[in-house]
Amino acid sequence: MKAQELLNRFHEIATCPKAQMAHYLDSGKKVVLTAPVYTPEEIIHAMGAVPFGVWGADIELNESKRYFPAFICSIMQSLLELGIKGTYEGASAIVIPSLCDSLKVIGQNWKYAVPSIPFIPMTYPQNRKPDYGVAFTKAGYERVIADLEKTAGLKFDDAALGKSIEVYNAHNAVMRELVCVLANHPEVSNAARSDVFKSAFFMLKEEHTELVRELIAALGEEESGPAKTKIMTSGILADAPGLVSILDDCGLQIVCDDVAAESRQYATDTPAEGETNLDRLAVKFKEMDNCSVLYDADKKRCAKIAADAKAAGAKGVLVVLTKFCDPEEFDYPLIKKACDAEGIPVTVIEVDRQMVNYEQARTAIETFRDIL
Ligand code: SF4
């Protein structure tokens, strides 16, 4: 297939998750919803179900307002709204990690608002590095396994987890390669780049890996287009079509990112060694770093953003701040400081999933482009 045909396929999948979910259910598979960030998908995959990413949607909020105050991030609000409206009917369970205050409260609301889809908590430790942190993570995974066995009728097998880990490590590698390849292909729009990342949440990872490999091969045979102004993006989510199209209109090209729904997902592989495969997976969480929701007193991620932007030749960093996301808000001043020290311009735009008018963001991005 040609690159454009593959990009069209990614777009189709990214914009129609409902069809993807129906496709898996019709083929007899069970679907388990995975809320952001770092839900242990490998376990769900190893138990024979399809892990299906749920990061909310750009919709109007009505029902979820009965459960949440207005000052909670719109990713959680829209996730609950979709659940209440029956969008995920047919799913066997939802696994929600505990990595921020909003995530900690959504589970209890979900239990009452969407009783047809059982809620399974994944409680992570704050101190994930010491041995007791790893043991805590492993115990959290065991709880997820027990709940999946009980509520979804799935069965766990450690050898199967080993195979799933290989599938996920291979997917991580291909997604990291993709970022480097796309950096050399300015003719691929930021919107198309976003589709490739977003579609990964709605596909079995082995299927997504194959499609991304095909895309990389197809791009390799095609000439790259005229150069654009290179930037780096940072944030939790940066997939709103209204926003991404502004970057394309302004002649900006995302050459690397520090976005939780994009490259942060794929930065850390499960290590090769471990007593059991579940132990290996617990160590993977220990080794994760450079994310606003992962505790780090030294905030090394901020210097890393500046270093990554420099290495990729990005002329500036665009921080896409999800409204009411405390972990990201706390890090922003430090990101700005680290980039200032390296002489890299930074700008921030605030977004939420209910935005319909991006004109203020357009003005900020156009001004940013003009100073790069
Ligand atoms: S990390 Fe931020 S955007 Fe993600 S769920 Fe928590 S508050 Fe919302």
Describe what this molecule looks like in 3D:
The chain is α/β, with parallel strands linked by helices and 372 residues long. It has 14 helices and 8 strands. The chain has a domain of 136 residues: Rossmann fold, CATH 3.40.50. Helix content is 51%, strand content 12%. It has a 4-stranded parallel sheet with strand order 2-1-3-4, with helices on both faces. A 4-stranded parallel sheet has the order 6-5-7-8, sandwiched between helices. The site of iron/sulfur cluster has 13 residues, from helix 4, helix 5 and helix 13.
What's the SSE blueprint?
Blueprint: H1 3-15, H2 17-26, E1 31-34, H3 41-46, E2 50-53, H4 74-84, E3 93-97, H5 101-113, E4 119-122, H6 131-152, H7 158-183, H8 190-199, H9 205-220, E5 229-235, H10 241-249, E6 252-259, H11 277-287, H12 300-311, E7 316-322, H13 326-341, E8 346-351, H14 359-371
Parallel strand pairs: 1-2, 1-3, 3-4, 5-6, 5-7, 7-8
The protein binds iron/sulfur cluster.
What distinguishing features does this structure have?
372 residues; alpha/beta; Rossmann fold; 4-stranded parallel beta sheet; 14 helices; 8 strands; 51% helix; binds iron/sulfur cluster
> What low-confidence regions span 5 or more consecutive residues with pLDDT below 50?
none
Largest sheet: 4 strands, parallel
Structural class category: alpha/beta
CATH topology of the domain at 20-155: Rossmann fold
Q: Got a strand count?
A: 8
Distance between the termini: 36 Å
Instruction: Supply Rg.
Output: 20 Å
| CATH architecture tag of the domain at 20-155 | 3-Layer(aba) Sandwich
Bound molecules: iron/sulfur cluster
Strand order of the largest sheet: 2-1-3-4
CATH C-level class of the domain at 20-155? Alpha Beta
- Shape, principal axes of CA atoms: globular
What percent of residues are in strands? 5-15%
The average pLDDT value, as a whole number, equals: 95
Count helical runs: 14
